Amino acid sequence: MSKKIVLGLVLVSAFAACQRQQPANDVFVPTAPAMGNPVTTEPVYQGKFG
Fold it and tell me: Which residues form the signal peptide (predicted)?
């Protein structure tokens, strides 16, 4: 019984791997206003108590 289940899972996974991939045409690139926070510079280390 367990051999049939394993064979079924192998066949299903092989079938899923052979399916045609859909092209990724809908790529979302966030812009500065959409992200909410403006780009700022990183603070500079000024010593132990800086």
Answer: 1-16
Q: Which two tokens stand for residue 30?
A: 């966030």
Instruction: Answer whether residue 8 shows pLDDT above 70.
Output: yes
Q: What angle do CA 35, 36, 38 make, to 5 degrees?
A: 95
Give the separation between CA 17 and CA 37, rounded to whole angstroms.
40
CA angle 26, 27, 31 (to 5 degrees): 130
* Distance from C-alpha of 2 to C-alpha of 8, rounded to nearest angstrom: 10
Q: Is the pLDDT of residue 2 over 60?
A: yes
